[in-house]
Hints:
By secondary structure, the chain is of the alpha+beta class. The protein has a single domain (11-273), classed as Creatine Amidinohydrolase. It is built from six helices and 15 strands. The chain has helices at residues 11-21, 29-52, 59-72, 144-161, 170-181, 276-300; strands at residues 76-77, 94-98, 101-103, 117-126, 129-138, 187-188, 194-196, 203-207, 224-227, 230-232, 238-240, 247-249, 255-257, 260-265, 268-271. Strands 8-7-9-14-15 form a five-stranded antiparallel β-sheet. Strands 1, 2, 4 and 5 form a four-stranded antiparallel β-sheet that branches. Helix 2 (29-52) runs antiparallel to helix 3 (59-72) and helix 4 (144-161) packs antiparallel against helix 5. The longest helix is centred in the last third of the chain and has 25 residues, at 276-300. The protein is globular.
Amino acid sequence: MLEGSRIGQLFDAASRIVARKRMIIAKSQSDLEKMRAVGELIAEVREALRRMIEPGITTLELNNAAEKMMRDAGAIPTFIGYKPRGMVPFPFAICASVNEQIVHGFSTDKPLREGDILSIDMAATYQGFVGDTATTVPVGKIRDDLAQLIRVTEECLELAIEQCYPNNRVGDIGWAVQQHAEKYGYGIVRDYTGHGIGRSMHEAPQIPNYGRKGTREKIRVGYCFAIEPMLNLGTAETKTLDDGWTVVTSDGKASAHCEHTLAVTPAGPEILTLSKNQKAALNAAKAENASALLESAAKKG
């Protein structure tokens, strides 16, 4: 995800209206194969960065590593040069947002410290399609309340993805995030949203992290979404720093963000931004569950 930091006031205010009128683009099987390829590519970058994160490393080092990995794989870092109307181009391959920074943080040469949390958001364009993903990572040992914030944000993403079955509604996605986050009293960021994705990073529909079940567009096979809960320890209110991009919590409390790109298949959601190892683990878990079900059925039979 990368949208202009004045979106709630300028770019996004207009794009909300336009997006509702634009058609949601269903992907063909050929398109989906390319979406799978770019999704796996950017997931490998994400997981490589996750392994690098430790006290003392800088976000500029992470950014440079991410850009090199994307380009070495034949992909284009989608964020570099991204320019919503009226804004300066975004200058980095990743958004690196530390502690109270929510999204769109600039990479710097300031070392990360033990106890920080870091949101890394990134996208790559490969074979004409975009994969977009984000995660929030602890830097060394962190406070329990920060660990819970990250965990609940990830749970919100999982619950949101579970809504992405054919004939459900887009409003179900935001509802799933909202009902879980509010159990913990977290501020749900409303100024920035998930979105459709494909040949462009931002396609219809917009997918807020709040909503009412059974509302908005019907979900259909072939739709691809980038879903990205953003939760704050305190208020949901945001403000933008003088760089014009970096969005922070207005009360200075920490924020967490995570994101997957997915495709809607006849069988339900398929997460596209999984690494090779994550796909192997998922397939092994599915096989184990299937085996257990067969064994249980045999005993009953």
